[in-house]
Structure prediction request, 135 residues.
Amino acid sequence: MAYILDLKSFKDERGRLTPIDGVLPFDIKRLYYITDIADAADRGGHAHYVTIEAVFCVSGSFTVVINNGKTREEFFLEGPSRCLIVEPYDWHMMYNFSPGAILMGVSSTHYDHSDYIHEEPKLEHDPIRESEKAE
Prediction:
């Protein structure tokens, strides 16, 4: 399941430096960023068979929902000193972007379309659906 990784930042009168050096659980093969995000747009909406990703909020804020079929959890990212590690089979979607938000992601693999799972998994235990059935 996805988890938050807090990164060390160093701040002085010149600004803040947040190095990403030897702290991720994988070697970086790809880096991407998403900018100019349309109002109310969702990004992601997939999982990976193999790839591990680290998602950073370089500027602004956004929410990431993770569903691995057993648990569905939301993570709020704001600021570059935290990242979300997204593991294989963690279906993820990013939404609720603040104006001017910048998402940066790094991946353990190069892009491979066959590594993508587009369908969101059904939860083994879904309290919302179970309460609807009980009514």
